[in-house]
Design a protein that fits this description.
Blueprint (H helix, E strand, L loop, with lengths): L10 H14 L3 H14 L6 H41 L1
C-alpha cells in the first residue's frame, strides 16, 4: 500500500511527469512510483556515464552495420542490373 510522502521536484520534472501521465492515461503518482521502481532495480554500482558510453558504442556499431548493409544492397542491385542486361542480349 502506498503512503503519502513529500518530495521536491524541479518544475521541469513535475511538468514532464504530468505530461507522461496524461499521455499514458495514468496518474502523476503512478509515474513517480514507476520511475522510482526503475531506479531501485538498477544495480547499486550503476554508473550512468558507463551506460552512456555503452549506448554510444552500440550506436556506432549499428551505424557500421547499416553502412555494410547499404553496400550489400548496392552490390545486389548492380548484380541484378547486370543479369537483366545479359538477359536482354
Amino acid at each position: 500500500m502506498a503512503t503519502a510522502t513529500t518530495i521536491y521536484l524541479t518544475g521541469k520534472q513535475r511538468k514532464g511527469l504530468f505530461r507522461r501521465a496524461r499521455r499514458r492515461r495514468t496518474s502523476f503518482s503512478k509515474e513517480v512510483r514507476e520511475a522510482l521502481d526503475l531506479y531501485l532495480d538498477l544495480p547499486p554500482d550503476f554508473e550512468k556515464e558507463r551506460l552512456a558510453a555503452l549506448a554510444k558504442e552500440a550506436s556506432a556499431s549499428m551505424d557500421r552495420s547499416i553502412a555494410k548493409l547499404d553496400e550489400a544492397i548496392a552490390f545486389c542491385r548492380k548484380t541484378v542490373e547486370r543479369i537483366d542486361e545479359l538477359e536482354r542480349r
